[in-house]
Amino acid sequence: MAPCAPLSLVSLLLLASCQPASLQDLTNRNADFGTRLYRAVSSRTDDNVFLSVFTLSSALLPLLSAAAGPTQDQLLQGLRLQGLDPQSLPDLFQSLRTAVQHGSLDMSLRQGTALLPRQGLQVSSSFLDLEWTGDTVREMATDLDPQTQLLIASAAAYQVKFSPSFNESLTQDERFYVNKYRVVMVPMMFRADKFFLAYDLGLKAGVLKLPMAGGAAMLVVLPDEDVDITSVEEAVTGDQIQTWIRQLKKTKLEVQLPRFLLERSYSLRDVLQTLNITQVFQEEADLSNMWEGEAVKLTQVFHKAVVTVADGDGAGGGASVFSTLPPRLTVNRPFIFVVYLQASDAVLSIGRVIDPSSK
């Protein structure tokens, strides 16, 4: 990868100097990129959305090492990593990846990324140790156009395990209001306990924290009944997530949350271009640090993400006994959710549930 010194006039104008990056810097920048990507994807569909933004960021990282000149400058800006020393980023990503993997067995997170050049391209020896994953990633790259030059594929599967868990014996079918015209019956989990809760007065949305195994947690952002979820989504940024986390207060509460399974696949070329990641897809792309003597551009970025949210396998958190009946929060309308590491507030995934009866 190019040294810290500016690589072009663009970087000279935009970046006064490269700063040593810290793990917290990377965490904040990843959250910024992830929320921008989520807003771009969610604005294009009325369906459920789920993105493993950490997995996708990890998949795009090799491009920074492969790119040079203006292509690298634009990638840094599009990934919200501008101003950080590019040479320090691989080690920082590895530190963050280690922290995620440390809890992934308890969290049941499986993920993989692959850089897929077309047959016959001569890849620089420094890139030959990139991780190739199993069938899940390779299936995403079948039936490709003969003009394909380079693909990036990433996949992640989350089996959410709440800690404490919901007691499946208390789960029962309840109404979920997809919109004012459509109602579906879904298995609704139940738990009475002390939860961390906040309310965003400006956005008119409640924020609930549900701790998970492995040191992660899920934020459930539930707009008020008279609030369109899109108005809340427009305000979802890395800073906003941090604000919600800081505002959480412990309170006695009964919570009803639907079980759901989301399985979403995306081709992200067009979306990434709306985030000003364009040159790497064009003929003038400079990926010369990876390919020796041949001009190569990125053709497509595939991403598949699966999340399963369910109750426990028997006696879970269940219903605590309180001297007075606590208030109840029933998540029975479209909501946003964010999975993050509690130790660092690193955002791992972002999604929304419009209809929990649909993948």
UniProtKB/TrEMBL annotation:
Matching SUPFAM superfamilies: Serpins
Pfam families found in the cross-reference section: Serpin
Protein name: Serpin domain-containing protein
Family listed: Belongs to the serpin family.
GO cellular component term of the entry, any: extracellular space
Keyword vocabulary terms for this entry: Signal
PANTHER family: PROTEIN Z-DEPENDENT PROTEASE INHIBITOR (PTHR11461:SF191), SERINE PROTEASE INHIBITOR, SERPIN (PTHR11461)
Coiled coil: none
Domain Serpin, residue spans: 35-356
Signal peptide (UniProt feature, chain positions): 1-23
A GO molecular-function annotation: serine-type endopeptidase inhibitor activity
